Amino acid sequence: MNMGHMPVQWQQVSPGVWQAQIILGACTEPVMRWRVTIPLTGELGDLPPVYAFEFVTDASAHESSIP
Length: 67
Hints:
Layout: E1 9-14, E2 17-21, E3 31-39, E4 50-58
Antiparallel strand pairs: 1-2, 3-4
């Protein structure tokens, strides 16, 4: 399922180190595999032009903590 593009606000925390917080869209699936693709621009040095990774969210992992 393609969740579209989600804007991300990046913040430099030290030279060469950046961080961002994201808010994921709601999904009806209890377990969802996410793929993030980040195009990089500017002087990249040894970095690839695109950085990609995957992660999984599991809604059932939090059910026991909901009152």
